[in-house]
Amino acid sequence: MRTLRAHELLAPVLRELAAGLEPAAVTDVLIGNAVGGGGNVARLALLEAGLPVSVPGLTVDRQCGSGLDAIVLAAGLVAGGGNPLYLAGGVESTSTAPLRAHRNDDGGPEFYPRAQFVPEKFGDPDMGVAAETVARKYGISRDRQDAFALCSHRRALAAAEAGYFDGELVPLTAGTRTVAVDDGPRRGLGSAVMARFPAAFVDGGTVTAGNSCFDADAASAVVITSLQRARDLGMPDGLLVLGTGTAGVEPEVLGIGAASAARDVLAVAGVTAEELDLVEFNEAFASQTLASLDELGIDAGRVNLDGGALALGHAYGASGAVLVTRLLAQARRNGTPGSLALAMISIAGGMGTAALLRYERFQPPLPQL
């Protein structure tokens, strides 16, 4: 997919979502994007998807949290009343992301690898360096990181073989090739292979390429509307939004931002970690995932049941939306109304966003024949 631009990744997903709706009835399209070229990729993609020109679009940037924050924003707008209907999610094409440059005094370009997230007095650490800081501060060993990453790959492979991803994926055409499956999970990984990876970001550190995510290209989106309108549209089931929140933490340990946000959301809802049935956490690095779960008292074995970003890749602005897509698919598979689900993601600059959801069926079951 390295030749597809962000709107070309997103348009087929929006088209698939809109196929079951009256496209002109879509109130707005809210899309997260982190490293695009500016403009408004939401509007560009929705028109590419064939939605009518009467449908507006809004692009949201909270870096890695953008996709989940777009969904959170849409849910908040629905709570305002009026039974609106939104398409919300995220997209990222890391492969075609534009080069970035400041303009020098002489007018020439000075290229830089990433945007500044916080003032220099806070250190503004790179993601890998911050992951090392989290590992050291929260006592996350190399062995735990490697074991968690290996589990992610094995779970993703098992889920793919079981066909769990089939109902979530939209095939994309790039040139003469159609891409219908993810190729991130690695069969050849084992404990011995994981142990051979050297430290990737800090000399003598524990964070390696093996227990860190890889950059990915992806788009993900969902329909957000009121319960009444969902029923009127004949939607069979979905996730009810019970609570959402975003929190800030020290930028040097940005990877635990999700834990801070999730703790607040759970406290407001009066829900304990033990009561959660499904949890999806964006696995940017094994160290920050494990540290955040430890802080929340959530056993790592209960999280990301079909693998996560360590195996499937991290598509920045899309990843938060992928979490919600995964939770709905898992809830449908389990088929238990009332199941509580938590989506959470840590964000550059020292932030995190979390959403507490509950699976419910909207239509009465058809009578047995």
TrEMBL record:
Residues 244-358 form the Thiolase C-terminal domain. Residues 2-226 form the Thiolase N-terminal domain. SUPFAM superfamilies: Thiolase-like (SSF53901). GO terms for cellular component: cytoplasm. Gene3D superfamilies: 3.40.47.10. The keyword Translocase does not apply. Keywords: Acyltransferase, Transferase. One of its GO terms (molecular function) is acetyl-CoA C-acetyltransferase activity. Signal peptide: none annotated. It holds the Pfam family Thiolase_N. GO terms for biological process: fatty acid beta-oxidation; phenylacetate catabolic process. The keyword Transferase applies. InterPro entries: Thiolase, Thiolase-like, Thiolase-like_sf_Thiolase, Thiolase_C, Thiolase_N. Its EC number is 2.3.1.9. It comes from the Bacteria. Belongs to the thiolase-like superfamily. Thiolase family. This is Acetyl-CoA acetyltransferase. It comes from Pseudarthrobacter siccitolerans.
